[in-house]
Amino acid sequence: MREINASIPFDKALWRQDIAASKAHVAMLGEAGIVTTEDAALIASGLDQVAAEYEANGVPENWDLEDIHMTTESRLAELIGAAAGRLHTARSRNDQVATDFRLWVRDQIDETEAALHALQAALVTRAGEHAASIMPGFTHLQTAQPVTLGHHLMAYYEMAQRDRSRFADARTRMNQCPLGAAALAGTGFPIDRHATAAALGFDGPTANSLDSVSDRDFALDFLMAAAQCSLHLSRLAEEFVIWASQPFGFVTLPDSLSTGSSIMPQKKNPDAAELVRGHSGRIVGCLTALMITMKGLPLAYSKDMQDDKPPVFEAASLLALSIAAMTGMVAEATFRTERMRGAAELGYATATDLADWLVRQAGIPFREAHHITGSAVKLAESRGVALDQLALADLKAIDARVDERVFAALSVEASVAARASHGGTAPVEVLKRVAEARVALGLPKDIEA
Ligand code: ARG
Q1: What is the per-residue DSSP string for 331-381?
Q2: Catalytic residue, candidates 261, 302, 317, 375
Q3: Does 140 qualify as catalytic in the annotation?
Q4: Is the Cβ atom of 11 under 6 angstroms away from ligand 1?
Q5: How many angstroms does the Cα of residue 303 sit away from the middle of ligand 1?
Q6: Residues of the chain with pLDDT under 70
């Protein structure tokens, strides 16, 4: 029983929140005259002392004391004597843990928010540098049309922006205080739940005591946002894995975020990126674990809910590492722009530009232009040359309406410059979005600054 019951090995991570919530609770008990002001002051200073001990030496792990709540209360009793027993008046471990855990998740959301901000700052900085660096854009991982590296990086800025909004949304929804719901039904003591909620930075108290001690939506909201965020990070990580492989050679990874092989001296492996990709699987696993733990639990508290913490702690630390790794990768990678540009020239990436030219300059319907372009690509392929290396006579033989102006449209530079529709890959559009993003992030407008 001792072994299956104890949560102290993991819930000691909640000690700061547990002390803060207990201090808010006892201050309210004193104000409301539920305990004397002397006892309230004694308990508060005792809690400060316990906190100082935890800070200095860590939280002692005595499994007989079960969890962080009992551990703290028992140390408080050793320090201040019988008055310690008054701290638990008008509360239960059920509302206590619900409060502590919310506070912990809220802090974690704030840290995640700051970390994502740093990732976005790295993305917009590199995107600004590479607003006009041409690379192949892919669909099906087949060369499709030229894009700019800046545009590609900014796609991940947009994903991170949505991730931040998911975390912010979760924070707003969870910011109600369950303290005072007691075991499940509320309490007969004249407590002031608005006061404790305000003292702990909540927007107000929760509305239903049964829901207060049973709700773990806030933890699931965090995990859902974390899972989604980790999927984005794993896609970015995968880009780096692909780009760093020799046949691509688009990027040289920072030494600080790669490793060598123990037997192949020439190797530089993208381990950090691979681990970010791998961690996303574990983070999604954490979400699944807690969803299944919560499924079908009757109201109110059940001990199953003690298992809410390990997956949240694990996901939070994996996510923090993943964001930090990708921030370093984006900030420090060396992009091999000449390789990217060379690759964009391969694979007839400007075939759509030829078709578009036929539509615009020769008035040919797009479907027909598509067909003519297909013939031109086939001819170029058979000769082993790029589209703009075909002779005008060859193009005219395919369709007489082609003239020499077409060549200006077939370069990769012309191709990206042409795509200046809102949100398109044209360098002017990329720079416009980078500038907007820098303002949104509160970064200096000038990239050099
Ligand atoms: N360690 C417990 C948890 O994390 C605290 C709540 C215990 N409540 C109870 N009724 N046994 O869930």
Answers
A1: HH-EE-HHHHHHHHHGGGTTHHHHHHHHHHHH---HHHHHHHHHHHHHHHH
A2: 261
A3: yes
A4: yes
A5: 6
A6: 447-449
